[in-house]
Prior knowledge:
mainly alpha, elongated
Amino acid sequence: MKNNRYLSYLIGLLLPPLGIYLVYGFSTTLAINILLTVIGWIPGSIHAVWAISKFEEKVAERAEREQRTV
Length: 70
């Protein structure tokens, strides 16, 4: 699981829209990232890493909540 996380961050840095697509699929987050990447690669990469980290946080919070209820 850790390797998958590092791979998603690496793809988010190198190809920001692809990294977002692999995590979120077709969504408004992908559209925002495409626009930011068209403006410049650095804004797109920053947004991709931020969005992927937020997704990871939500997954961790959900797992923690489920573990508490069990």
